[in-house]
Design goal:
This protein is an all-alpha fold. The chain contains three helices and no strands. It is extended and about 55 Å long.
Length: 110
């Protein structure tokens, strides 16, 4: 295999990975927007949300022990929320699958 062919294959692979990265980034942004709505935070002022995010960014970047403890508490709360949401989704999916799998009983006519 020639060097130029390998180079073209690598460039194609890089392009594909960049496209996948952009798609995943858009999906994540949509999930975050959906969370803001589902957590009933859409009515909160933009500057308050931005301030909270900047506070979080500052605590993570400065490695402040007090701030990092707060970040860990928030991470734990987020993990619990996501586990609960995931289990609810799985439960509802299982219920839907079971309902779809049940044979429909014939209705008795009177």
């Amino acid at each position: 295999m020639s060097v130029s062919l390998k180079l073209r294959q690598l460039e194609t692979k890089i392009s594909t990975l960049q496209t996948q990265h952009q798609t995943l980034l858009k999906d994540r942004q949509q999930e975050i927007a959906g969370l803001i709505t589902s957590l009933d935070l859409a009515h909160v002022e933009d500057n308050l949300l931005i301030g909270a995010l900047l506070f979080l960014k500052d605590k993570i970047s400065t490695q402040d022990p007090t701030g990092l403890a707060l970040v860990e508490a928030w991470r734990d709360a987020g993990d619990r929320f996501l586990r609960r949401s995931k289990s609810k989704k799985q439960s509802s999916t299982i219920l839907l699958e079971r309902a779809a799998a049940k044979p429909k009983s014939s209705q008795k006519s009177s």
